[in-house]
Amino acid sequence: MYSWILWFHIISMVSWFAVLFYLPRLFVYHVENGTNQGFIDVVEVMEMKIYKYIGVPAFWATLLSGTALIILSTSHYGVNVFAMGGWMHAKLTLVALLTAYFFSLGHFRLKLKENTAYK
Prior knowledge:
By secondary structure, the protein is an all-alpha fold. It has helices spanning 2-32, 37-75, 87-114. Helix 1 (2-32) runs parallel beside helix 3 (87-114).
């Protein structure tokens, strides 16, 4: 079971990171083409779909499968992942920072949609 959850965690993490890297690029396109309303309409739909339909499910899948991996390795295998040299603490700190970054992307997406992000 652990291997399947690990596989799912890696796939969901790659999907989440794709959103973290691609959505800011769409924001740049959005701002660069601010006068072309037809292009803006298309980019806003792309931003919404990438964030809501790929990003949010991938975020939750990554978070829940990562939690499941910690619980399984602690309870089933008897490994205390928090006593292994600080690696898990560093990973969880990075996850917290990436979570804040992800939700800030959602905030900026709404600001761009309202046309108040760069005023």
